[in-house]
Amino acid sequence: MMDLQISRDRNDKSWIKLRDTLVPGGMPDLWAQAFFEYFEDRLESRYFEPIAAIDKLKADGKGFSIVALQCSLIEFLESTIEGKKYIFRAKETDIVYGDSADMFKRFFQKRRPFKAYFADPDLRDDFYKSVRCGLLHEARTKKEWIIWKGDGSEKPIEEALDRKIIWRVSFQKHLKEAIEIYRERLMSCETLQRRFIAKIDSLCDLTN
After folding, report:
1. What is the mean pLDDT of each run of 10 residues along the chain (208 residues)?
2. N or C, which end of the chain has less CB nearby within 10 Å?
3. Where are the domains of the chain?
């Protein structure tokens, strides 16, 4: 049976070996290894490096592709934090979910630094429908939403009189901050550690 690649240099077989050494509340060095080898490297190779490559292109529509990838990353990040596996249309439990909308919007509701900008549930819902779903299903944003690059100094989103702006460089900067916050918490939080194991197990098809 072919190995399941989890990150650039790690697969299901290497995960099983490391997993046997991981204990919630155990050695921080092992948890740091698990995070960097199986999570951060997965994000770098499947999200951030492709985003950087797209950004170098001379293409008018590259902002749409970049934000679509960022939206995909949000659901993966939140489902890892919650330790849940996606099963199409499944009823949500402690270990599975089948509704991307709820998972996506919980990220904005709960996770720093984004929750400071998405306190309004209507804004979270609008972003999901008009940005995430608009990009993934129709390669466009809807309603008043537009995508601008910026230089990273802006807020990730900005509401003006006649438009809502996604500053994609700043948005990514805030995503990386959210990932760093998660890393710091993972090193000492046993609940997050158990959920991390559950998520990587699901990526390796080690769960039902």
Report:
1. 88 96 94 97 97 96 97 97 95 94 97 97 98 96 97 96 95 98 97 98 86
2. N
3. 12-139+179-203
